[in-house]
Every structure is written in C-alpha cells, then in structure tokens.
Amino acid sequence: MIEPYRARALAAVPHGFLGRRGGVSTGILAGLNVGLGSSDDRAAIVENRRRAVGAVLPGASLVTVHQVHSAEAVIATGPFAEDARPHADALVTDRPGLLLGILTADCVPVLLADVQAGVVGAAHAGWKGALGGVTDATVAAMEKLGAQRDRIAAAIGPCIARTSYEVDDTFAARFEQADPANERFFTPGRSGHQQFDIEAYVLSRLAMAGIRTVEALGLDTYADPEAFFSFRRATHRGEPDYGREISLIGLPA
Fold first, then answer.
1. For the chain, first and last CA: distance in Å?
2. Treating both helix axes as pointing N-terminal to C-terminal, what angle do 134-144 and 198-208 enclose, rounded to 10 degrees?
3. What are the residues whose beta carbons fall under 8 Å from the beta carbon of 113, sequence distance 6 or more?
4. From CA 235, how far away is CA 249, in angstroms rounded?
5. CA distance 207 to 19
6. Are 156 and 49 within 8 A, CB to CB?
7. How far is Cα 86 from Cα 67, in angstroms, rounded to an integer?
8. Can you give the pLDDT at residue 187?
9. Is residue 25 within 8 Å of 32, Cβ to Cβ?
C-alpha cells in the first residue's frame, strides 16, 4: 500500500512525497521504483507510476522532465512525450488535471503552491541545482503564471541528511565561495571532510527568495532502506543500480 508523506503547508492541494513502499519492482529495486533510467523491468516502472498517480490525484496526467542537475525550470501545459521531455530540473503549471513529478534518490524534492493563483511547482534540487538556483528559477516560473512569492508555500521532502552526507573540503569550498555564510551548513567530519546539511541549505534558499511558508519533513533517505531509495547507500553497498522515488503535486480537474 502506498502511503504518501504529506506536508501541512501544502494541505490545500493534492500532493505527496512517495517512498519505496507499495510498488511491484523486485530485487535491489524492490518497491515503488519509478526511474526510467534504471535497469528495472519497464512494465514494473509503468505500473509503479500508475500507482503513484492514483495515490495522489487519481485520473491525472503525470508530467516529468529529463532531470540533469540543472537550475532550469519549465512551464508545463500538458504531458511531454517521453522522447521529447525537456532537460530541466523543475516544472510548474496552472493547468488542472496535471500531476507534476520529480524523481530523487537522496537529492532534495521541493513542492510548491500558490493556492490563490492556482499555480503549483516541483523542483529537483541536487547540490548542483541547489547551488545554481533551481528553487529561485521555480519561483520565477510560477510568477509568470500569476503566482506571488509572498503567497507561495513550499515543502521539502525526504532527502539525504547531514549525518549521512559526507563531502570533502573542496566541495564545501564551492558553497563558501558562492556565499561565506554557507559555512553554517557544514560541520567538521573526518580529516579533509565535512558533513553537509543540504536540506537546511535548500530551506535557506527558499527563505531568501521570499517564500514565507516552508516546511521540511526531516526524513533521511540514506538511513532508512525500508522506506526510501538512496543513490549513496547503493553506492556504498556496491550495488549495480538504485531506485528512484517520486514527489508529486497537482491541481484537481
């Protein structure tokens, strides 16, 4: 059974952060794997996506992009053909009946909504996209459809937590060069390494963009293999592939 994680901040719109429970995939990808880029059986992925849509907004059309760890956001007016999905990491819409989907496996999923304007958005914030401003681009795209940033509510779903996210000093230096204040998102680790709080960083970027209502669920994908897929955990285990979970938001038809 699929039990989406939901945010109080987005209670007025259909949405859900889905984990790995409730799907039909087997083996190391067991559960609700929705990643077309995985080696999973195609029929299983299609069925998992169908179940995901049904758990959040039954009858809606799923819309996804070809994620490339960018800061690009696109406006969706309908589903994209699979071989014509734009290379982007966020999408927004004001069209009822569309369900925006973002895939993650440690990166930060962000769902956003301006209920009054009838505009929703979804962003995939890996470290590159987060640093490049993918959340800023998402908010700007929502504004093009009539949203106002002081009315936008946002929620951050399951992602890798500080205690599980070890990076080297060179990685941390990238963020500190962009803004010395980013030092606060890193804590010392073993020699030459630090622990990065990407959830807090994305939350901060949303706040700096003028988003007044932001909720972080505080769920660590790496630490809970029963509930979530994790690229880093799969890598540490020497597994040849990893599953992807999906976060969804839409407007009822």
1. 25
2. 40
3. 10, 12, 13, 15, 119, 120, 121, 152, 153, 154, 249
4. 29
5. 26
6. no
7. 8
8. 97
9. yes
Token duo for residue 10: 């987005």
242 near 230, Cβ under 8 Å?
yes
- Collapsing DSSP to helix, strand or coil, 199 comes out as helix
Q: Residue 73 pairs with which residues in a beta bridge?
A: 90
Closest by CA to 90, choosing from 105, 118, 106, 68, is 68
Residue type, 93: T
* Residue with the two structure tokens 């696109």: 74
Span 8-161+197-250 CATH architecture: 4-Layer Sandwich (3.60)
**Reported pTM:** 0.98
User: How far is 24 from 96, CA to CA, in rounded Å?
Assistant: 29
Beta strands in the chain (DSSP E): 15-17, 61-63, 73-75, 90-93, 98-104, 108-114, 119-125, 153-156, 166-168, 186-188, 193-196, 213-216, 245-250
Banded pLDDT at 1 (limits 50, 70, 90): confident
Which residues 6+ apart lie within 8 Å of 147 measured at CB? Answer: 114, 117, 119, 139
Q: Confidence band (pLDDT; 50, 70, 90) for 223?
A: very high
